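Same chain as my last thread, 237 residues:
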Amino acid sequence: MDTAPAEPYVAFLKESSTFHNAIVYLLAAHLSAIRKTDAEVAEVHDRLSSSVAPVYNDPRSYFVARLFIAHIAAFEVFLQDTISAVIQKHPKKVGDVEFRLADILDSPTTTELVQRATDAHLNKLMYKKPNEYLKEVCALLSIEREPLDDDWKILVEAKARRDLGVHNSWKCNGIYLRKLHEAGIASSLAIGDSAVPQEKAYLYHVTDALERLSKMITLSVLEKHWPALAPVVKSDA
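reply #2:
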């Protein structure tokens, strides 16, 4: 049985498990360093602490923040790969797409043309407002939106926070607050506050939501487009 449509979900679950294990590892390493049981480790810890200050409280916060950015990116890859799989099965979902004659002549198969159209469509999708983005995703996948709404808001906040880390040294700004407002989310941060994702409760809140989203999306997609696979994923999930 072809399990390709479920592969993005399997890959994301593996990444999510790695993320959880890394958080535990970093906490253990942090505690070992601050106890100064090893002089060399303690010296390296203190030196790195100075390097990452004042944005990060300690090296653990620095590495956790980097893992957080990577984890959000992993979910985005899951979503893009899932959408791509559905569009490959139903190419007309991308609508009317124009290609240059040279592109058509250079493409060995129509599959490659469909993939180019898919990539272009996904790129445009990334710039939509949060609620428009979700609406478009559900339309492309032919799945119901309502079951995703609550966890999608958690994703929206996490993506906005990730953008703060990439573009604004983790400082809350008006763009972050606007993105949350557009999605109907109340912010616990004010402009200038640090948004470094370091609390375990917050990190697990986000990862749990992303795991639920990936599972709901995958099962809905399989039930709609590959019904024979749905029971297999349900039994393994």
